[in-house]
Amino acid sequence: MQVTTEIFRKIFGKSRRSDFFGDFQDIAFAEDRFRRAVGYALCYVVFGLISLSMLLNWYEGNINMVFVLGGVLLGVACAFAWLWIDENAVYGPLYIILGTLGVLGIYLLLNRDTPNGSLFWFLLFPPMVMLCLGLRQGTVAFVVFYVFVLLVMVTPLHSHLTDPLAWTARVRFVAAMMGAFVFAWSAEFLRYQTQYALGRTMIRLEQDSLTDPLTGLGNRRDFYNHCRWIAAGSSGKFPVISLAIVDIDHFKRINDTHGHEVGDKVLRHVAEVLGAQTRASDKLYRWGGEEFLVLMPRTAAREARLALERMRRTVEKTPFQEGCLEIPFTVSIGLYSGIMRPDVTGQIAKADQNLYAAKASGRNKVVG
Question: Which residues belong to any copy of the GGDEF domain (predicted)?
Answer without folding.
Answer: 239-368
